[in-house]
Amino acid sequence: MRKYSAFAIAREAARHHSGWERAWRSPAPKPFYDVIIVGAGGHGLASAYYLGKNFGITNVAVIEKGWLGGGNTGRNTTIIRSNYLQDPSAAIYEKSRSLYETLSQDLNYNIMFSPRGVIMLAQTHHEVRGYLRTAHANALQGVETRFIDKHEVKKLVPIMNIEGPRYPVLGGLWQPRGGTARHDAVAWGYARACSDMGMDIIQQTEVTGITRDGGAVAGVETTKGFIGCKKLGVVVAGHSGVLAEMAGFRLPLESVALQALVSEPIKPIMDVVVMANTVHGYMSQSDKGEMVIGGGTDSHNNYTQRGSFHHIEETVRALIETFPMLSRLKMLRQWGGIVDVTGDRSPILSKTPVDNMFINCGWGTGGFKAIPGSGWGFAELMARGHSPLTAEFGLERFREGRFIDESVAAGVAH
Ligand SMILES: Cc1cc2nc3c(=O)[nH]c(=O)nc-3n(C[C@H](O)[C@H](O)[C@H](O)COP(=O)(O)OP(=O)(O)OC[C@H]3O[C@@H](n4cnc5c(N)ncnc54)[C@H](O)[C@@H]3O)c2cc1C
Fold first, then answer.
1. CA-based angle 81:86:91, to the nearest 5?
2. What is the pTM of this model?
3. Is the predicted pLDDT of residue 303 greater than 70, yes or no?
4. Which of 82, 251, 330, 387 is most enclosed, with most CB atoms within 10 A?
């Protein structure tokens, strides 16, 4: 595949852009692959990419029931940070954040990584104590964060009202190299690189069954017929429980809708990402000028990819105290995704009760930031049977009570 470069753009400009190749092939499935990954979201595609790049395994198919990046990967608010409290979380999220720094160059695809900085506001004394603790933990973990006072917060975000009547801003946990990236581009960049390595990305093909040969996986039934494999990776976010049931086991997961919205575009007013976890709202400004706003999950389980109206109302109402200017903006559009939430709000990257079947899920409301790190670790787990990045995230932790409790630590997980 031709490299994207300034020279290539100049050449194509001179010939009316008639020479660009397709970014990825759309092949018919082969009867057998060394590895099948189900789910062409960011995590599935990144897993395939690092299988090829780090382990030379390229006889790989990524099977997607819709279009690649059409799940949560193309529906999130793109916040990237690694300021987690627990050591295993900080390790995988910081690996991920550091891979994001050079991902555009690595993939030869502009994923628009914007390390503009992320503030998590402290609006109660409990949060101040919590974030001070996280800042100390991050120092030990090698994650660059700092607790800043309310005046520094105001300097970073002049439009913020820090003297709100209910929840005045007392300070914040600041991660200067956190930020955002273009979500579709992350999926597209990985897809293009996978296709370039000879992997098959098979879209519009649903996995409808998992075939076992004794205790091991033999392949998958799909809407395009049976496809055999030596190893199977299931990376389907909100549908993980459905796929696990096909293989005959259950997962400690709930699927719920999480939604987000954008305002009409306005001139640049805020060049950092702000998360207000007490009131449960978070916001950044897109390159187009829209205010990108997210809140909490629906309280009931469902697979609708929509979300309910009262959540939007609650999220916006909560943010207006801290950002009064929001009350004068119109909402442009709203959407939802189905997120897969575990009890300890930490992911599952694990072997399963079925030999040669692996699962990568449970990223819940916060997995966009983890895509490169998760792919890196999951590829190693699938190739070698073990990865230091994923070791603590096995399914057995639920049986053994070894939770990696980020819900208590962070309050919010985006
Ligand atoms: C509104 C919203 C806001 C969010 N905000 C953030 C944020 O700011 N920062 C952050 O880090 N994270 C955020 N997240 C979470 C993040 O989007 C997800 O954790 C992440 O994208 C999950 O990626 P994935 O590849 O695991 O799943 P997905 O992108 O959902 O990919 C799974 C794929 O599997 C496919 N699939 C399912 N079943 C089958 C089947 N039977 N056969 C074949 N294919 C199948 C689906 O079609 C889908 O494309 C947000 C999520 C939402 C919904």
1. 60
2. 0.97
3. yes
4. 82
